[in-house]
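Input record (Table S2, row 293):
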Amino acid sequence: MVVLVTGANGQLGQSLQFIAPNYPKIEFVFCNSSTLDITNLNNVKQIFNHYKPNYCINAAAYTAVDKAESEPDKAHLINVIGAKNVAQVCKEHNTVLLHISTDFVFDGNKKAVTLSAVEVPYSENDIPNPTGVYGQTKLDGEIEIQKTWEKHFIIRTSWVYSQFGNNFMKTMLRLASERDTLSVVNDQIGTPTNAVDLAECLIKIIIFSSLSFGEGRGEAFGIYNFSNEGQCSWYDFAKKIFEINNKNIDLKPIPTSSFPTPAKRPKYSVLDKTKIKSTFGIQIKSWKERLKA
Ligand SMILES: NC(=O)c1ccc[n+]([C@@H]2O[C@H](COP(=O)([O-])OP(=O)(O)OC[C@H]3O[C@@H](n4cnc5c(N)ncnc54)[C@H](OP(=O)(O)O)[C@@H]3O)[C@@H](O)[C@H]2O)c1
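Output record (NAP complex):
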């Protein structure tokens, strides 16, 4: 079984490279942005003609949430046209596509339909309503994939961090070595996701899907949520990062209004993982446990 990974130098791409040796029966083809530019349709065709993958994990994306506000065309090119190109070539090769999307497709205003009207996690069926360019391009990319090729799994995830690339955890650790005090927002709630857990989840879906071909379980294609379990604010996340790493820093909680950013972010974007757990038998660990790891 050949699994082709785009965006192989990103956090998720490197996490997939990290776990690949645990799956000797899978032949992984890792393509970074210089060997495979997903915005170049001919380049995608050429690579697929050569490797003829059974599965493609599209880990390539424009992920600079704030910068996207001033570079909407570039974000659209990679997250919408790029995703569409990959879906089109997957269709030509009957390749199953696993595409990664985001909690930022939601506006964060979902409330329970009860008197308490508390926030409740987003399910796959909730109506997206992005608050910024990044979220909009990720949603438009999902839509292009759905229109182009039915054999797809779209996995929405949130707050991804890892030992690889740039992410919140690494930024906090860097700042802890440069400063004595730090303020972090405490009124945006979500769930951190260890990129290695996301990588493992994708491989489990591939194995499940490859074993169930011919058993009429194609209906498993569609949208799924994945993050670690639990929820926290960015402040809670930072506090735990410093605690685990024995960093002594004066950490202050602040409201979003005190830390304006170009892109508006959802206040609450916890994802409900019931569907991915029940469909693929995936067990998910808590964000605190996985942060420690
Ligand atoms: N990071 C998060 O917190 C987060 C949260 C929710 C969802 N997600 C989604 O999860 C997925 C993986 O994210 P990540 O954190 O691994 O992102 P990342 O670290 O920013 O990696 C993205 C990769 O895509 C590559 N890329 C950009 N343009 C490309 C193109 N035209 N052709 C091929 N590759 C291209 C980049 O390569 P270069 O560096 O060479 O440009 C980079 O290696 C993305 O779909 C993202 O939207 C991420």
